């Protein structure tokens, strides 16, 4: 039985605040287009009807049965209803505006699953569809909360059933790699080396390095650096001082953090915070 200490998503959902907004609920009567300019992910749930999906870098997909598809990375895409029976719920989401999304690292474009493959989401999806067809007070707020629940359940399902073959979720689904990824998530300030991460995973250094790169899509060192800077961004948005953040994510001092932060983000921590402060 999984305990709270075994929760592979707890650090991600703790540091990065999931926010979603439903903007389509019910019949889809016209072509809808979405671009990647806002840096958002998208989730679409097709309840019934026929739909054509066009997205950047992928072949056109025709959907003819209830399904769920999503883009963790910001991706331009187009939805074309192919009949007057098409009903769906669509939402945008992010894990903190302006933040590096750890779940999107090395993630391919559109991910598609039939609703028949997701029995654990049945209850939440039925609540979502029922609420989408109503016009009651508080509907927008309730739809937004319900789609956030669906997203969290979906992430859990993707890990538990190992639906994805590359990216962070694929790494978390791997029994050995997940041990190393989880200690990175839980202890970002530690001076992790390839040797001790491989030891945590119970693998040789060479095998661990190769398997991590092939599964997650980047080297362990690259992932560690991305995770630390992502947390630094989240802490900056929460008003934490730069020296505190440097210590929290494993940099010797504020200058070392600033150099690493600027190399990844393209701006110093102070400048990034000013550009991304809540108005």
Report on this structure.
The chain is α+β, with helices and mostly antiparallel strands. The protein folds into two domains: 4-160, Jelly Rolls (Sandwich), CATH 2.60.120; 175-275, Homeodomain-like (Arc Repressor Mutant, subunit A), CATH 1.10.10. It contains eleven helices and nine strands. Strands 1-8-3-6-9 form a five-stranded antiparallel sheet. Helix 2 packs antiparallel against helix 3. The longest helix is centred in the middle third of the chain and has 22 residues, at 139-160. The protein is globular. The N and C termini lie far apart (44 Å). 36% of the residues are buried.
Relevant terms:
279 residues; alpha+beta; Jelly Rolls; Arc Repressor Mutant, subunit A; 2 domains; 5-stranded antiparallel beta sheet; 4-stranded antiparallel beta sheet; 11 helices; 43% helix; disordered N terminus
Report low-confidence residues grouped into runs of 5 or more.
Answer: 1-5
Secondary-structure arrangement, i.e. CATH architecture of the largest domain:
Sandwich
Write the element-wise H/E pattern from the N-terminal end onward.
HEEEEEEEEEHHHHHHHHHH
Query: How many domains?
Result: 2
What fold name stands as the CATH topology of the largest domain? Answer: Jelly Rolls
Rg of Cα set: 20 Å
Return the average pLDDT rounded to an integer: 90
Envelope shape: globular
Alpha-beta content class: alpha+beta
Helix count equals: 11
